[in-house]
Amino acid sequence: MNIRAQNLHSGKVLSLYGEQVSSRLLLGTAGYPSPAVLTEAVKASGAAVVTTSLRREAAGGKAGQRFFEIIKGLGVRALPNTAGCRTAREAITTAEMAREVFETDWIKLEVIGNDDTLQPDVFGLVEAAGVLVREGFKVFPYTTDDLSVAERLQRAGCEVIMPWGAPIGSRRGLSNIAALTSLRAYFPEAKLVIDAGIGAPSHAALAMELGYDAVLLNTAVAKAADPARMAEACATAIKAGRLGFEAGLMPPRDMAVPSTPVAGTPFFDLD
Question: Of the ranges 45-54, 237-246, 253-262, which is most confident?
Answer without folding.
Answer: 237-246
